[in-house]
Amino acid sequence: MITLDGLTKVFPAPDGGDPVVALDGIDLHVEPGRIHGIVGRSGAGKSTLIRCLTGLEKPTRGRVEVGGTDIASLEGAALRAARRNIGMVFQHANLLDSRTAAQNIGHPLEIAGASRAQREQRVAELVELVGLQGRERNHPAQLSGGQIQRVGIARGLAAEPKVLLCDEPTSALDPSTTRQILRLIRDLRERLGITVVIITHEMSVVREICDDVTLLENGRITQSGSLLEVAADPHGPLSAELIPLPPVPTGIDATVINCDYGDSETLRTSEDLVRLAEQHAAEATIVAGTIETIGGRQVGRVQLALRPIGAEAASGIGREQLAQLLGELEDRGVVAREVVA
């Protein structure tokens, strides 16, 4: 559905200095019907990427293909027609205060020249689709933050696009409303079969809704793949952010190790790690951890406190015993390392 091939965007420096490379050779393919997250810190190139996807910015080099159409090659009426296949949802819906919710939803259709009857029919469908029944005649000042975002989503779907681009759609919402909006986006994908791209800095959004995720850093892709692949890769830059490890408790008289698992074919749960430690004569206690179920598979980062089995006093395990355990964990696809105080 979306293919970026060597996408590069260079901005000239305003003071005549070195040009700014906002996007540097981006290659990315988003399959139809998937929810794809684009993450990265401020300045990574996320905003420039979304502007290139909508044709608001022309690439310096490369292709931007949406639904088989090279957006970067279009101008004028052809570009406006292609944009109707791309819906946009923003962090702030920026509704027209003088218009009702229904009128805001129908505004893109009015601009496109749809008849009043066509607009009214489509708006009625969208109001039901996003759960705004009874709020059609309310103005933005009479709506909650979640309801305003629902209006924004409905407006983005007005022209029946094949792709929905969401730019930080939940960052201004409270956690409960965020979950509701994410469920709505996921339900819309299921009901309409649309492809969704979410630009976000919130890893909780990625965990909750995305099928795939791409990390941008300094205008380049540093990691991309399915959510399970990325989360289960302990060497990748996104794993620790998707599954953060809480601080280790203090005052533990034991050998403490960190274990990142999920890529292992034989050790798939924290209980598996405990049982393997016991095979090396070590009593293992989970003292901290973050565990997520992604794609039906458990992925986690845990800290284990290791003590000799049967030891009368609390103490850590021997160095040779620890080396053997760490070696077997590594052989089985678990990244394990000792935590040194």
Task: List key phrases describing it.
single chain, 341 residues, alpha/beta, 2 domains, 14 strands, membrane, MetN_ABC_transporter-like, ATP hydrolysis activity, cell membrane
In short:
The protein is of the alpha/beta class and 341 residues long.
Helix proportion: 25-40%
CATH class call of the largest domain: Alpha Beta
Q: Quick one: overall form?
A: elongated
The name of the CATH topology of the largest domain is: Rossmann fold
Indicate the multimeric state: single chain
Number of domains: 2
Cα Rg? 25 Å
Span of the ends, CA to CA:
50 Å
Number of strands: 14
CATH homologous superfamily placement of the largest domain: P-loop containing nucleotide triphosphate hydrolases
**Strand portion:** 25-35%
Unreliable stretches (pLDDT < 50, length at least 5) are none
How would you classify the helix and strand content by structural class? alpha/beta
Please write out the topology.
Layout: E1 2-11, E2 20-30, E3 35-39, H1 46-53, E4 61-66, E5 69-70, H2 76-83, E6 86-89, H3 101-112, H4 116-129, H5 145-156, E7 163-167, H6 175-192, E8 195-200, H7 203-209, E9 212-217, E10 220-226, H8 227-231, H9 239-242, E11 255-261, H10 270-279, E12 282-294, E13 297-308, H11 319-331, E14 335-338
Helix pairs in contact: 3-4, 3-5, 5-6
Organism: Brachybacterium phenoliresistens
Subunit structure: Homodimer. Forms a membrane-associated complex with FtsX.
InterPro entries: AAA+_ATPase, ABC_transporter-like_ATP-bd, ABC_transporter-like_CS, MetN_ABC, MetN_ABC_transporter-like, P-loop_NTPase
